[in-house]
Design a protein that fits this description.
Blueprint: E1 2-13, E2 16-27, E3 31-35, H1 42-49, E4 57-62, H2 70-73, E5 77-80, H3 92-102, H4 107-120, H5 136-147, E6 154-158, H6 166-178, E7 184-188, H7 192-198, E8 201-206, E9 209-215, H8 216-219, E10 225-230, H9 236-242, E11 248-251, E12 254-258, H10 265-278, E13 283-288, H11 292-300
Parallel strand pairs: 3-7, 3-8, 5-6, 6-7
Antiparallel strand pairs: 1-2, 1-4, 8-9, 10-12, 10-13, 11-12
Helix pairs in contact: 3-4
Length: 310
């Protein structure tokens, strides 16, 4: 069963069409990256899923129980908006306890969850501080903590690491990775290197539509291609003769080899490396597929018809 399914969702603000027949699905238990330029409709998507924005048309199914409904999805769905404003006068721990109680927890459960969440985001020492006394990065960590309170089944995070320093970004990655299989995380971010480090499913959005979706490995070609960075070009004819049936493409100092169907990448690498070394190729780097950023840029640089997601 999917954690989230949208079919033909439309949303307009006057003449601006924010969502244009958006159709996508996200499997349960994955960490999904939501990728798209400003104005692609990512924040509006979070709004319609979280019940903050009423769609004009289309079908939304959350956790197999229809569109968002507060009583039905209380504690099961959590959302971190991009510009999350927290009450500046409330102490951090009290704020988290309040959110936990809204989920239906007892006072004791709320206390435990608040303390655990603060420990996760490395803010236990600021539990008694008021929100206004925190830096921007600390406030962002509090917002992430509230989104992970309890045992949510679907967590929507819009730019969760915005404003965090590199050490805390790494800490957030560890926290997100630890959720894999426990809940479904949907993370929107413009920093594709971060998404690639944690996600196993990705959705590309443009102009309010899903233009591509699938596993990270499929979208980046990590199951089907090997890229080799060389100091200088290699003799392609000789390489093809040494690897019969293998598709080889050269772009300057970068060589792309397509893995034959049915062969594992590791087994293919052994053959390819042996052939390259026999040709005295000067190998600088070897990687599976391409980066998520490269996959997105390749998609963005050419026109595409929207697909239905998967």
């Amino acid at each position: 069963m999917n954690a989230l399914t949208l079919e033909g969702v439309e949303k307009s603000y006057g003449k601006l069409k924010a969502l244009n027949g958006l159709t996508l699905s996200i499997p349960k238990g994955v960490i999904c990256g939501l990728v798209g330029p400003n104005g692609a409709g990512k924040t509006t998507t979070y709004g319609v899923v979280g019940g903050l924005v009423q769609p004009d048309s289309g079908r939304i199914d959350i956790l197999g129980s229809g569109p968002f409904e507060p009583r039905r999805h209380r504690g099961r769905v959590t959302l971190l908006p991009q510009d999350c404003a927290l009450n500046p006068h409330t102490p951090v721990r009290d704020l988290l306890r309040f959110y936990a109680r809204l989920q239906g927890m007892t006072a004791g459960e709320a206390n435990r969850e608040a303390d655990q969440a603060l420990d996760q985001v490395a803010l236990s020492d600021r539990a008694g501080s008021k929100i206004r006394q925190l830096s921007h990065g600390m406030r962002r960590r509090v917002a992430v903590a509230q989104a992970l309170l309890g045992s949510p089944e679907l967590v929507l995070l819009d730019e969760p690491t915005s404003g965090l320093d590199p050490e805390l970004v790494a800490r957030m990655r560890e926290i997100f990775t630890a959720q894999r299989g426990r809940c479904t995380l949907v993370i929107s971010s413009h920093v594709l290197v971060e998404l690639e480090a944690v996600c196993d499913h990705v959705i590309f959005m443009e102009a309010g539509r899903c233009v591509s979706s699938g596993s990270l490995m499929d979208l980046t070609g990590q199951r089907s291609a090997v890229r080799v960075l060389l100091e200088s070009p290699v003799d392609l004819a000789a390489l093809r003769a040494a690897l019969p049936g293998v598709t080889a493409r050269e772009d300057g100092a970068e060589l792309t080899l397509v893995v034959p169907d049915g062969e594992s990448v590791s087994a293919f690498n052994r053959r390819a490396l042996a052939a390259l070394l026999a040709l005295e190729a000067e190998i600088v780097e070897l990687r599976r597929g391409r980066s998520l950023e490269s996959a997105w840029l390749a998609r963005a640089r050419q026109p595409h018809a929207p697909d239905s997601g998967s």
